[in-house]
Amino acid sequence: MNVRRIGLFGGTFDPPHFGHVAALQAAAASGRFDLIEVTVAGDPYLKRLEGNVRDATIRLAMARAAFADLELVEVSNREIRREGPSYTVDTVHELLKDCDSVDLIVGADLSRQLDSWHGAEELRTLVRVGVVPRPGATSVVPDGWVSYEIPMDPVDLSSSFVRDLEPTSTNLRKFLPESVIPLYQSVRG
Question: Has this prediction a pTM greater than 0.85?
């Protein structure tokens, strides 16, 4: 396959859940991409400042388990291999060496924060932004960004919600792909 158009879906994925799966399926169904790269943040500097972030290798393993069978999706360790904080602008530069265009795929809850991202001024000149609807979040993209909505029914789920649950298989089956549950339970104890 000639990979000309890449969708970049980055995140911490601690843990990856059915909301992520739905967003990736909607992005794949949109017809906009030849490939969707899920990039697991090696050092998610903004989340690290908020508190504990699990080791990148376990987050990568969970993402691979969650997304392995999704059409057009490839899980990447490129940000884990790179030293220092994980900046989207650096990942986009790497991807543009091998493709014609990169679109960021972000949730509506994050879209308004784009101007606060490292290298935002440059990043907005390099990418378009596909916004995935989230319950209760309006899709607001700051001025200067080219954006569009990825059509899907919003999923009311977050990784922080899952982390607050008792990690029993019964609880987790409602929110996580079956293949992720044993990996997640092994790090939850």
Answer: yes
